[in-house]
Design brief:
- The chain is mainly alpha-helical.
- The strands form four sheets. It has a two-stranded antiparallel sheet. It has a two-stranded antiparallel ribbon with strand order 3-4.
- The protein has a domain at 32-61 and 301-400.
- 51% of the residues are buried.
- It contains 14 helices and eight strands.
- The model is unreliable at 1-18 (pLDDT under 50).
- It has helices at 6-23, 42-56, 72-89, 95-108, 118-135, 138-151, 158-163, 199-216, 219-235, 262-279, 282-295, 323-336, 342-363, 382-398, and strands at residues 60-61, 66-67, 176-177, 180-181, 196-198, 246-248, 364-365, 368-369.
- The protein binds 2-acetamido-2-deoxy-beta-D-glucopyranose.
- The site of 2-acetamido-2-deoxy-beta-D-glucopyranose has 5 residues, from loops.
């Protein structure tokens, strides 16, 4: 082999500059963040989390597996949070409750879809996957597979993008938007004339596919996860690295640029974390770290103290109340799967502890929590309690 020419050297130099640019994320912890650590011992962190779970259970309607005061998709997220609590603690204390209710909802709602939303179905499928991870219950795994099979009917395949036809839709779909293929996008709703494709449905599908790939080893899930990750990467990341909301699958019109919600970035971070474990492809780790670095410092949902302000609704429930829980859950997944990235882990732990200390210091009324994490404490609300569970659970293992 001849010695490298000047061109080669220049090329290698530019390449390494690019690579260092990609990896040189600012993972420092802002000094302005409020209380980014905790000294509470493990046993206390476990009881804080279990007590918060106990405080939402009186709202459970066992006939439907749902909770008074919150919606169907949010109820699915309560089950995910409870299953994750048991997984983090290493117990099956809440197993019968979680398994029975995930079975109930599956029996009542075909493919976990109650109202005609693919994201609803996937929230519950992810509850079933968390339950499977915690308890190894095979029925839960089969509910998740069934839901994945159903939602797969609403993905734009490469062939669909080429032909501008999606078998479940009655309009011409865009092959590309802004020069990038629409393959991998997942329609928000099954309805034949609904044109919306969004990051949350596509991110849920990416994440569900990646978990199923990890569990089963079946490459069809890996392929699906990669295609949907590529869709979000190509279409829905803004210049700051934050995940945007939606794109119209017919005419490429976009959601307003100020529609920035924590859960879109959170679900993408979770999906990429699992996908990186499955594929060992560093591009997904790099993109995950890039998204984390942007999202935990975004002024779209927090001030300089770092406490999330999104979904602070003291008098009534709304969808936004549940978003920040999804974000924190995704951050914990990134933490747990990157044991050797010390800077990333300190940043993630600090961010979760900021939220943890806000809940406990500013928003707590015994074991119940306001959805306004700056406080003040208030009487119990189901939605405030829902929003707290992932923080209280994540704090169990993110601290040592
Ligand atoms: C704490 O919760 C109880 C029960 O929900 C309620 O009666 C009380 O007013 C709450 N305290 C504050 C300070 O809001």
């Amino acid at each position: 082999m001849p010695p490298p020419t000047g061109g080669h050297i220049l090329f290698i130099h530019v390449l390494s500059l690019l690579l260092s640019f990609v990896s040189a994320q600012d993972l420092s912890v802002p000094t302005s963040w409020r209380k980014p650590s905790t000294s509470r011992p493990l046993s206390e962190r476990i009881s804080i989390s279990q007590d918060a779970i106990n405080s939402i259970l009186p709202q459970l309607d066992s006939a439907t597996a749902e909770f008074n005061g919150i919606g169907y998709w949010q109820a699915g997220n309560v089950w995910t949070a409870i299953a994750n609590h048991d997984y983090f603690v290493g117990t099956d204390k809440n197993k019968a409750l979680v398994v029975n209710n995930l079975n109930t909802a599956f029996k009542l709602n075909a493919h976990y879809d109650k109202y005609g939303y693919n994201d609803d179905a996937l929230w519950w499928a992810q509850g079933a996957l968390s339950g499977y991870r915690a308890y190894k219950d095979q029925n839960l795994l089969s509910h998740a597979v069934d839901t994945w099979n159903e939602v797969t009917n609403y993905v734009i395949t490469e062939a669909d993008a080429q032909s501008q036809k999606q078998p479940k839709k009655n309009f011409a779909i865009a092959s590309t938007c802004n020069g990038a293929t629409m393959a991998g996008g997942v329609f928000w709703r099954p309805t034949a004339d609904d044109q919306g494709i969004n990051s949350i449905t596509t991110g849920l599908y990416l994440s569900t596919s990646a978990f199923l790939a990890e569990i089963t080893g079946d490459p069809k899930y890996t392929k699906a996860a990669v295609l949907s990750a590529q869709w979000i990467k190509a279409h829905n990341i803004n210049a700051d690295g934050i995940i945007l909301d939606s794109v119209n699958g017919h005419d490429c019109t976009r959601s307003p640029s100020n529609w920035l919600f924590t859960y879109n970035s959170g679900k993408f971070i979770e999906g990429l974390s699992v996908l990186a474990s499955v594929t060992k492809d560093s591009q997904w780790i790099d993109l995950m770290v890039h998204t984390v670095a942007a999202a935990v410092k975004s002024s779209a949902w927090q001030g300089s103290d770092g406490i999330i302000t999104e979904g602070a609704s003291t008098t009534s429930n709304n969808d936004g109340v549940g978003f920040k829980a999804i974000f924190i859950r995704g951050l914990y997944e990134a933490f747990s799967r990157n044991p050797r990235n010390a800077n990333l882990r300190v940043l993630l732990r600090s961010y979760v502890d900021v939220q943890y200390n806000a809940l406990l210091d500013l928003a707590a009324n015994k074991s119940t929590y306001s959805s306004s994490w700056h406080g003040p404490p208030q009487a119990f609300t189901t939605w405030g309690q829902l929003a707290s569970l992932d923080v209280l659970g994540s704090a169990i293992r993110i601290n040592s």
